[in-house]
Specification:
elongated; 49% helix; 14 helices
């Protein structure tokens, strides 16, 4: 019977190593022995049980054979897929394959140092990749190495002391002017996704929110749209997920034109479904989408963008200069029009579903200077009227009794 240094009985598979003053846990699986160590019996037993689980579920890889690529696959499967949205997992995989795999994929996990991470960051920055792409790559690297530390595969996270290069590029979001907005809708008239464009321009909803909008989320009686889910496309499969952040789950009041467009969209969809007959074939779980393609199926992001590009090309072909726009341009344009028309930024924040005010003011800072000037002019007019009214009151006032002189003491 194995006992600890005080003579107390130890758990099965745990022995005390007196010379090393630590506890060893051992077990055998398919003829191979596995060993772990801990400062206390509890720690050694926990490590033994964790390792046994990994061995039995075929997720254990000997440290000497563990490359970053192998560990990334384990990290994604065991730690991210059960805890984050499918869209997020897709973003991680895409960015890993595009930027990280060729650099770190075949390197031994234990051999990657902070200076390797820093060189990777600097190389990405020198190639003018966006700061957002760098942030995603850092999240992937930090997540994989942090979990490797927690799993006691490596002792230190090499990402901790690496520094992202400063983002010196000031990017302004593409926003349509009032004339461009009017012109786009004119050219988009009678196209198959016209209702989608107008609802986008007058609600500020994200592309995935619009394409994932369901009829049960449209309340015609209250004239409200409930943004309750977002549509994503990953591994050749559509997914309906909760909105981006808790504040993204929100209610958006309908303007009159949005109300009319959605009413017409409902009628046109019913008519199209009858016309298509057996060709109307919605995907299981997506039978009630507001915006669909000709066959009742979801509209993916590429289709949305492609149709917008067609309209812009038609304008350019007709000799009308019109800069490139994306589905997100509609959201930026809505926000800019709202601020230009005097909507308080706090209200705009709730409509856009931003998690905090700073996000709203940072993105749309280009509008706020003019609004500040307008507000100061309005305040100046108020003060001017107050001064005029004050002078008028004094000039009209008469004193029947003069104040008594102050006596000298």
């Amino acid at each position: 019977m194995a006992v600890d240094k005080n003579g107390k009985k130890l758990p099965p598979g745990i022995t005390y190593r007196a010379k090393e003053n630590r506890y060893m846990g051992r077990f055998a699986y398919h003829g191979e022995r596995y060993t772990v160590y801990g400062k206390t019996p509890t720690e050694a037993d926990r490590k033994k049980n964790n390792l046994r689980y990994e061995v039995e579920h075929h997720t254990y890889i000997k440290e000497e054979n563990l490359t970053f690529g192998k560990w990334f696959a384990i990290w994604i499967q065991n730690y991210k897929e059960p805890s984050v949205k499918a869209g997020t997992v897709g973003v991680y995989r895409q960015n890993y394959n595009a930027y990280i795999k060729n650099i770190f994929g075949d390197k031994q996990l234990r051999d990657i140092r902070t200076d390797h991470i820093q060189q990777f960051y600097n190389g990405m920055a020198s190639k003018n990749y966006s700061h957002n792409t760098l942030e995603i790559c850092r999240a992937i690297l930090n997540g994989t190495f942090s979990q490797a530390v927690k799993s006691e595969i490596i002792r230190k996270n090499p990402v901790s002391n690496a520094v992202l290069p400063r983002d010196n590029k000031k990017r302004s979001a593409r926003v349509m002017t009032v004339n461009e907005q009017t012109l786009f809708l004119k050219y988009a008239a009678n196209t198959k996704y016209y209702a989608l464009y107008e609802v986008a321009l007058f609600t500020g909803m994200r592309s995935g929110e619009l394409r994932g909008l369901r009829w049960e989320d449209v309340n015609f009686q209250k004239r409200e749209i409930h943004v309750a889910c977002t549509l994503t496309y990953q591994d050749s499969t559509y997914h309906s997920e909760t909105p981006k952040t808790p504040t993204s789950d929100r209610l958006i009041p309908m303007t009159e034109n949005v109300y009319e467009q959605l009413k017409n969209q409902r009628k046109e969809q019913v008519k199209n479904r009858l016309t298509m007959g057996e060709l109307w074939d919605p995907l299981y779980g997506f039978e009630n989408l507001v915006f669909t393609n000709l066959y009742g199926r979801p509209i993916n992001r590429a289709q949305f963008k492609k149709e917008i590009d067609k309209i812009v090309k038609k304008m350019n072909d007709n000799g009308i200069p019109f800069a490139h726009i994306t589905p997100h341009t509609f959201r930026h344009t809505f926000a800019t029009r709202s601020l230009e028309e005097g909507m308080p930024p706090k209200i705009l924040q709730t409509i856009l579903g931003h998690s905090d005010m700073s996000m709203t003011t940072e993105i749309y800072a280009h509008v706020l200077p003019d609004k500040k000037s307008e507000e100061m002019k309005r305040l100046e007019q108020v003060y001017s009227r107050m001064r005029q009214d004050g002078v008028k009151m004094v000039s009209e006032q008469t004193f029947d009794v003069l104040p008594a002189p102050i006596e000298k003491t």
